[in-house]
């Protein structure tokens, strides 16, 4: 198996190179790019990024494990990331979590058997004023209630 | 109830529809500082910022002008501006408002700042989760390039300026300025060992200024109206305004700009509509999770300025208040925050890497009913070790959080202790 | 750079202005605990163990990030400092088993030392709470990682990223999940990889070869010079003679020499001890029959006196003292002294750091004695006397004698000699530095000088 950035991305990479003083700075943008392209970041992608960034593969690998949003494994089509930090907790995120678990029949860290949903709890999403909050893939859903969350999930099924 | 007068410097356009677009923003005054900007020299602008006493709004409150003055002007090396939009401090969600509701104000501020420090490249480091909002910011930047406000020759003034949005990928510690720069260099977000002298920051060994989004967004007002106009807001040592915010047990949580110096309770009542469900207030974490918690009594004395908050043994931080009503379980609340810190420690230095995990474990034992009385002392002792012995102030902040909760609500913690355990 | 005076624990010391405080403390053997600092790797500031108290500073400071200035006053052992260190060490031990008796690093582990120093055995660390990390991970063919023992000082990482620049190791994950790793499926694999074992301040990295072979406190260390190539890295030969057994080398370690090899050696040199003790020639043989020392000398003497055209081959690994004696000897018997050096040359071995293209320890002496290094014979040789030169079999002669360290000689007369680890002498490396190797291992076998001086008695 090998990984290649698609033509669109290759073009973007050339542009990016002109925006930073050193090519090593591209590691985060390229890891994002690889994740969008494949849905997760494979070791092959890491190898390719290391080549572009002119750095040992380890440098990219250790970066990829530092940031919580980089997925080195494939996840469900919809990644539910429910905020678990204080403001959301004060505003009853636990009830929302229960509601999700009931609806999908999975625990935190698991995926539904049809591969549609993966459930995670994450730290403060910077949306505490509209808590409880979840990020579904990249979209924020705010002011959740145990009822509204079920509607959202139902609509996705 | 006291009625507060709205005083807005950075949020004046938040309520306007489509304020994120160039045409609407311009119509309402964005980019109007540019004219005056180009009549000033670097030194003059820095002097004005110093004179305004503008303080950093990312949590530390450092005087911005002094920081700008550390930038070596006329260096052969290129210099950079890194705008901090990592916004991961629990309870803080104000910069998001700026980049999604008035991104052009930020761009205008970046133009002013870069011109002052003679930088031709600015990066905006946006936390990875804020994809939707950084998209809005990116569109605004694209519009600004189109209009000639950014690029090779901005406003036809012969000045080149590039603005690049750089996305983080989920790491609270990347909000710490040196970790942010490490991350921007493509590395893990490990804070750097602090320099011995006061100096600017360094991006790939080039002089660099790091400021918070809101700090930068305050600059156009000062450039346009002068330092005195800014000082008309707030108090003499905390001049200006801040995008204070509320979350937790209040009726109308959200971001509301206010001048410094007003009473915390007035703010909560006026903007937040008081405590939810008519409950009594128990405590407030005043400025993002990492500031020391205040009891209801202390909140009664609290004013929203740097000095008063410091006198209360806490700090103003980011101005993001987390409000807790009388029913809040303080043991669970502290455990919740310690999980956050346990998850977010970069793991570089021993006291923090091991300490954050250990206190979290002991707290879990406490909640599980398998902790002894001495375990509370143990937490305090570990917390002491985490204070002042680390590379960055993450660990000392955790130490303050622990200290605040346990000393102020000790009996609640003790009620979980099982003395019969051997 | 100017000298300044600093006061440490109420005594004055001189140091270069702006030099690192930790270097000064190490130089004067002033006890300061540290994991992450290393002279060859620099400061990283992550372990927070090297705390000292500096007059005028509110908080304790780390010595590895403190530059000395005139009049600075430092306390390294105050109560405040001791308690700070003790507490940090205690945190370090949370996720680190204190099972020294079964740890391979016992006796060479800083964690163990400090643990004893600070008397933490009574600390209330609950073992059950420890994060249990994977043990015994093979990082490559020669190094094993035990994550439970790792204190994340990143010395090993900095070695592969800054020194060998091969970048195989890194810290992955974050917080207390952070650990040392290679990229999945990749190995720690470079010609200097095993240095990380010496660098590791605790028992987290061990050598597959040495693992549990010996407890270190039984070993004797003898300073020597590696004979793997003409760089002449300074080494310690660690050996031990167990009861009723032969004196045996268990490992070779680098010995610090800033001018030659710094703190490091290559893996080839490190592992060369095996060849040093395997397949060794122990007996004296005449046409494959064991003979006595006296008979051997008589046989050698008669071979010399019966031959006209004598060629002597000398190995470029022998000590200066041997080469001098051989050179004398060859003049005395009118022999031609040669040392073809082509066989030592291997440019696939050399690199731009330590390893040199010539795999012999004393090439410089061959040059100094102006010994013919290009010799190839077209004439008929009557007697070929080889002093351990590897190309012996390439030459044909009517008669042959070989002084040999290893078995397998095809000469009629074979005389056992000791390997360099078994006697003392000097070599000159390719930077023209003369260096001394001390005898590490005891042997009954006579040295070349002994043979030659006894031979002159027989010949009388
Ligand atoms: C652990 C930690 C997290 C931080 N997070 C942020 C952040 O998310 N946003 C921010 O602007 N500043 C953050 N800071 C403060 C920055 O280090 C820095 O002081 C700030 O960006 C400077 O800008 P200012 O002077 O304009 O406030 C953080 C500091 C620490 C120690
Ligand atoms: S204090 Fe914590 S977050 Fe800061 S450098 Fe040390 S380990 Fe990292
Ligand atoms: S394995 Fe050893 S050298 Fe490497 S980080 Fe861990 S303790 Fe340090
Ligand atoms: S570089 Fe040469 S002298 Fe040094 S250890 Fe390796 S083989 Fe021995
Ligand atoms: S605590 Fe959930 S978004 Fe901040
Ligand atoms: S040796 Fe100084 S911090 Fe590790």
Give your account of this protein's structure.
The complex is a heterotrimer of chains A (157), B (422) and C (460). Chain A is an alpha+beta fold. Chain A folds into 2 domains: 7-66, Arc Repressor Mutant, subunit A (Orthogonal Bundle), CATH 1.10.10.1590; 78-156, 3-Layer(aba) Sandwich (Glutaredoxin), CATH 3.40.30.10. Chain A contains 7 helices and 4 strands, in the order ααααβααβββα. In chain A, α2 runs antiparallel to α3 (43-52) and α3 packs across α4. Chain A starts with 6 loop residues before the first helix and ends with a helix. Chain B is an alpha/beta fold. Chain B has helices at 22-27, 34-37, 42-52, 64-69, 95-101, 103-117, 131-146, 177-184, 213-225, 227-231, 264-272, 296-301, 306-311, 330-344, 350-367, 373-385, 394-408, 410-414, and strands at residues 80-85, 121-126, 151-154, 159-167, 201-203, 206-212, 241-248, 254-259, 281-285, 294-295, 320-325. Chain C is an alpha+beta fold and 460 residues long. The longest helix of chain C has 16 residues, at 79-94. Chain C is elongated. The N and C termini of chain C lie far apart (63 Å). Chains in contact: A-B, A-C, B-C. The structure holds flavin mononucleotide, iron/sulfur cluster (3 copies) and FE2/S2 (inorganic) cluster (2 copies). One FE2/S2 (inorganic) cluster is lined by residues 34-37, 45-50, 62, 64 of chain C.
Question: Could you say which structural class the secondary elements and strand pairing of chain C correspond to?
Answer: alpha+beta
Give the bound compounds: flavin mononucleotide, iron/sulfur cluster, FE2/S2 (inorganic) cluster
CATH level 1 name of the largest domain in chain C: Alpha Beta
**Whole-number total of structural domains of chain B:** 3
Strands of chain B, total number: 11
> What structural class do helix, strand and pairing data of chain B support?
alpha/beta
CATH T-level fold name of the largest domain in chain B: Rossmann fold
- Give the domain tally of chain C: 3
In total, the number of strands of chain C is: 22
Distance N terminus to C terminus of chain C?
63 Å
**Strands of the biggest beta sheet of chain C: in what spatial order?**
15-14-20-19-18-16-17
Order of neighbouring strands in the sheet with most strands of chain B: 3-4-2-1-6-5
Largest sheet of chain C: 7 strands, mixed
**Rg of chain B (C-alpha, Å):** 22 Å
Order of helices and strands of chain B: HHHHEHHEHEEHEEHHEEHEEHHEHHHHH
Give the second-level CATH assignment, the architecture of the largest domain in chain B: 3-Layer(aba) Sandwich
Question: Strand-residue fraction of chain B?
Answer: 5-15%
Q: Please give the alpha-carbon distance between the first and last residues of chain B.
A: 54 Å
């Amino acid at each position: 198996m090998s990984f290649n950035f698609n033509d669109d991305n290759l073009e973007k990479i050339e542009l990016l190179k002109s925006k930073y003083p050193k090519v090593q700075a591209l590691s985060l943008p390229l890891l994002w790019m690889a994740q969008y392209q494949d849905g997760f970041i494979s070791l092959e992608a890491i190898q390719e990024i290391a080549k572009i960034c002119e750095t040992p593969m380890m440098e990219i690998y250790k970066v990829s494990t530092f940031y919580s949003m980089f997925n080195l494994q494939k996840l469900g089509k919809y990644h539910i990331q429910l905020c678990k930090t204080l403001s959301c907790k004060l505003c009853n995120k636990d009830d929302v979590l229960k509601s999700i678990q009931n609806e999908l029949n999975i625990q935190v860290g698991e995926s539904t058997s049809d591969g549609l949903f993966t459930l995670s709890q994450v730290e403060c999403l910077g949306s505490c004023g509209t808590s409880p909050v979840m990020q579904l893939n990249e979209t924020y859903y705010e002011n959740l209630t145990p009822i509204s969350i079920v509607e959202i999930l139902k609509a996705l099924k | 109830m006291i009625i507060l007068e709205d005083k807005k410097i950075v949020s004046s356009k938040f309520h306007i529809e489509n304020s994120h677009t160039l045409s609407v923003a311009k119509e309402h005054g964005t980019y109007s500082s540019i004219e005056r900007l180009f009549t000033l020299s670097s030194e003059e602008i820095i002097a004005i910022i110093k004179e305004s006493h503008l303080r950093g709004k990312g949590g530390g409150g450092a005087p911005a002008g002094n920081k700008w003055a550390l930038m070596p002007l006329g260096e052969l090396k290129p210099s950079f501006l890194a705008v901090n939009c990592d916004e991961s401090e629990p309870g803080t969600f104000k910069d998001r408002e700026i980049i999604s509701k008035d991104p052009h104000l930020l761009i205008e501020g970046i133009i002013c700042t870069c011109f002052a420090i003679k930088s031709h490249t600015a990066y905006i480091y946006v936390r990875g989760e804020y994809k939707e909002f950084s998209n809005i910011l990116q569109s605004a930047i694209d519009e600004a390039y189109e209009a000639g406000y950014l690029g090779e020759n901005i406003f036809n003034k012969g000045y080149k300026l590039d603005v690049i949005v750089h996305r983080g990928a989920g790491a609270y510690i990347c909000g710490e300025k040196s970790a942010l720069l490490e991350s921007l260099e493509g590395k893990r977000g490990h804070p750097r060992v602090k320099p011995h002298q006061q100096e600017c920051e360094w991006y790939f060994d080039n002089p660099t200024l790091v400021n918070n989004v809101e700090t930068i967004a305050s600059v156009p007002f000062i450039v346009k109206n002068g330092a005195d106009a800014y000082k008309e807001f707030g108090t003499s040592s905390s001049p200006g305004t801040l995008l204070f915010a509320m979350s937790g047990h209040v009726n109308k949580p959200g971001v509301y700009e206010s001048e410094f110096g007003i009473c915390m309770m007035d703010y909560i009542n006026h903007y937040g509509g008081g405590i939810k469900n008519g409950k009594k207030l128990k405590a407030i974490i005043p400025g993002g999770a990492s500031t020391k918690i205040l009891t209801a009594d202390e909140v009664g004395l609290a004013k929203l300025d740097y000095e008063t908050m410091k006198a209360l043994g806490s700090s103003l931080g980011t101005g993001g208040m987390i409000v807790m009503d009388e029913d809040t379980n303080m043991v669970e609340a502290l455990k919740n925050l310690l999980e956050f810190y346990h998850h977010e420690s970069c793991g570089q230095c021993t006291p923090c890497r091991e300490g954050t995990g250990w206190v979290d474990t002991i707290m879990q034992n406490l909640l599980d009913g398998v902790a002894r009385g001495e375990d509370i002392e143990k937490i305090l002792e570990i917390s002491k070790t985490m204070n002042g012995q680390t590379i960055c102030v993450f660990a000392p902040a955790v130490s303050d959080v622990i200290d605040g909760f346990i000393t102020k609500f000790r009996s609640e913690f003790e009620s979980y202790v099982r003395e019969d355990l051997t | 750079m100017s000298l300044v005076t600093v006061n440490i624990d109420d005594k004055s010391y001189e140091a270069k202005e702006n030099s690192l405080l930790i270097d000064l403390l190490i130089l004067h053997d002033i006890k300061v605990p540290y994991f992450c600092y290393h002279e060859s790797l620099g400061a990283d500031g992550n372990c927070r163990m090297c705390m000292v108290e500096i007059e005028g500073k509110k908080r304790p400071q780390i010595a590895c990030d403190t530059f000395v200035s005139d009049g600075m006053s430092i306390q390294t052992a105050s109560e405040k400092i001791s308690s700070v260190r003790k507490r940090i060490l205690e945190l370090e031990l949370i996720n680190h088993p204190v099972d020294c008796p079964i740890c391979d690093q016992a006796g060479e582990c800083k964690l163990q030392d400090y643990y004893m120093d600070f008397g933490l055995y009574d600390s209330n660390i609950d073992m059950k709470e420890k994060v249990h990390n994977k043990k015994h991970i093979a990082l490559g063919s020669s190094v094993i990682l035990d994550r439970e023992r790792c204190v994340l000082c990143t010395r090993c990482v900095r070695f592969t990223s800054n020194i060998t620049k091969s970048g195989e190791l890194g810290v992955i994950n974050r917080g207390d999940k952070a650990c040392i790793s290679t990229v999945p499926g990749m190995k720690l694999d470079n010609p200097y990889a095993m240095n990380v074992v010496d660098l590791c301040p605790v028992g987290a990295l061990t050598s597959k070869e040495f693992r549990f072979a010996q407890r270190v406190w039984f070993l004797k260390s003898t300073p020597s010079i590696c004979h793997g190539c003409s760089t002449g890295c300074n080494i310690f030969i660690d050996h031990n003679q167990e009861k009723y057994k032969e004196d045996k080398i268990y490992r070779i370690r680098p010995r610090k020499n800033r001018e030659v090899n710094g703190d490091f050696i290559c893996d080839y040199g490190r592992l060369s001890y095996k060849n040093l003790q395997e397949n060794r020639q122990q007996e004296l043989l005449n046409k494959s029959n064991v003979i006595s020392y006296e008979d051997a000398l008589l046989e050698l003497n008669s071979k010399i006196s019966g031959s006209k055209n004598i060629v002597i081959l000398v190995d470029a690994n022998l000590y200066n003292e041997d080469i001098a004696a051989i050179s004398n000897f060859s003049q005395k018997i009118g022999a031609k002294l040669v040392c073809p050096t082509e066989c030592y040359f291997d440019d696939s071995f050399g690199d731009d750091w330590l390893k040199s293209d010539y795999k012999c320890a004393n090439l410089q002496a061959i040059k100094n004695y102006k010994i013919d290094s290009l010799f190839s014979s077209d004439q008929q040789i009557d007697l070929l006397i080889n002093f351990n030169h590897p190309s012996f079999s390439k030459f044909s002669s009517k008669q042959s004698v070989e002084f040999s360290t290893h078995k397998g000689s095809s000469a009629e007369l074979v005389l056992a000699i000791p390997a360099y680890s078994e006697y003392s002498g000097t070599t000159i490396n390719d930077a023209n530095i003369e260096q001394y190797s001390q005898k590490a291992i005891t042997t009954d076998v006579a040295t070349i000088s002994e043979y030659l001086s006894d031979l002159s008695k027989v010949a009388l």
